[in-house]
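Technical appendix A lists one of the benchmark inputs used to test multi-chain prediction within the project. The record comprises two sequence entries:
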Amino acid sequence: MVILTISITSIEMEGETTKYAADISSVKEAYDRIKSLVHRTPVLSSTSLDDISGRKLYFKCENFQKSGAFKFRGACNAVLSLTDEEASKGVTTHSSGNHAAALSLAAKIRGIPAFIVVPKSAPSCKVENIKRYDGNVNLAEDNMQSREEVMNKVRQETSAIYIPSSNDGRIMSGQGTISLEFLEQIPQIDTLVVPISGGGMIAGIAIAAKAINPAIRILAAEPKGADDAAQSKAAGRIIKLQEINTIADGLRAFLGDHTWPVVRDLVDDIITVEDFEIIKAMKLCFKILKIVIEPSGAIGLAAVLSETFQKNPAWKDCKHIGIVVSGGNVDMDVFWESLNK
Amino acid sequence: MVILTISITSIEMEGETTKYAADISSVKEAYDRIKSLVHRTPVLSSTSLDDISGRKLYFKCENFQKSGAFKFRGACNAVLSLTDEEASKGVTTHSSGNHAAALSLAAKIRGIPAFIVVPKSAPSCKVENIKRYDGNVNLAEDNMQSREEVMNKVRQETSAIYIPSSNDGRIMSGQGTISLEFLEQIPQIDTLVVPISGGGMIAGIAIAAKAINPAIRILAAEPKGADDAAQSKAAGRIIKLQEINTIADGLRAFLGDHTWPVVRDLVDDIITVEDFEIIKAMKLCFKILKIVIEPSGAIGLAAVLSETFQKNPAWKDCKHIGIVVSGGNVDMDVFWESLNK
């Protein structure tokens, strides 16, 4: 595997509240801003899955979030944070997935246009979602250069504001609202297991959860075929990969300069799992939890059931584990093919 | 279609509280008995589905109930209502589906055996569920005579107590606890749409809901290919069919002498839908609600989206509609085939 390293932009400062791009105050402000618009998603549990894992598991179902994924929290916070003048030009992003639909819905709610650059390979249900929320779809080739070129053209034409999918304080603060709800719903949680990709969700969740309960453990779950975050933690700097290979289409992004310091400091460990473990977890979610999830959404359960986790003495006293089920946007045939693998 | 009529056993009496086999008090007693054991299932909603239906819809997700269906409420209430002496012999039933697994789990919790007679054609996931909860599976042929013969043999050998799947006051009271939760979760509900089969669930729900809010409308949803309840309402007496033909394997039972009087008196109307409407609703539940449901569980949404309902001026002012999603026990391949029809 070819590994490409890049330099880190450090944003650390002296004071606690300015250390990261988000903090507990910005998360609480985000919640005040968005709470009437987001679903307070339910938490499911299952004695059967508790028996299989040997722990008490709690599933925070962000697959039931508006737009079908947690991304709506951050997008909504970012869009509502804009001044009227900024908002008037509309918003734009490039995304293969859930952030695009979430941003379209947030823009629709604010009554402004969303210009979305989508790579041609994006799952059709995700493109459908963007259109359902009146997002303007602009197709790009399946590489970052083309995505950025198309987006820059859109920005020149429209002056729309760019809302990144992860590496942004407003996004991190929005996703962090998951912790506020989850720890209120299940106060006994001692460990949170969260999918990691660009790091916006786990950064927001870690900041808020550790502010509420400093003893809480934050574990990231990552596919082995896209383990840039695990490699970054090991190397002590952001590592980007040139090749990624995983079924989990939502977990292919890399950490950024705002999300990396939080992952470095507040994420206790990263558990990597194989795609077959993700598929096994998807099947259990179908059969036992009765929920539809995309592969990325199953990785938390996959991590908890993995040998890596089960056999590590460091995690033996993780007894009440909160698992964030990130999203449910999956094409029916992809879902079926995955379950039959 | 050949129709076989049978006589009605009237159980009506003078006093309000003894009119039916269950009443609001027995439902509340049931809830006190079972509430620490059942899931308080979440209610989901979706702006997209509200837009499609032109109403506010609330989905009570009993597919997330223990054992994968609402049946656990009634089975749990019945098993916990037994004296220690009665319980010591174990319980038995014949069922092709969710009641069997629910009864097995309830018996397991009480620490007594469950002897389940299952027709050979039962979905394999449902048989798996029975075994997961340590139920003793006794196979019968695919007809009522064989099921009853096998069960009678089991009863002679074990003296186990028979717990019917629907036509029983304890079962009706247990299922009625759905109303207590649902109307507490969403007090503005003006209409409940409930699948009808043996009638135990809708009877319990109607009794409790109308005691809480006499103005609430109770609508049953039934497959056209198994419309015995609609025919019974029209005829003013229990009608049983000799042929049934529907994808909804959970909705093939007939009303009994305890459930019929409640359906006759408290169910405002029965909406029948074609199988293709059920399948369309299953797809929407997959794509938009992100939940796994069996065909029976989709029939409430199918009914609300049907022309029969949408064009009926009598239901024009049903604005806040509570839909009971009854269960999620479906074989993966059956689910997939259904979604592709």
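Chain A has two domains: 3-70+168-339, 71-162. The domain at 3-70+168-339 of chain A is CATH 3.40.50.1100 (Rossmann fold). Comparable benchmark entries are summarised in Table A2.
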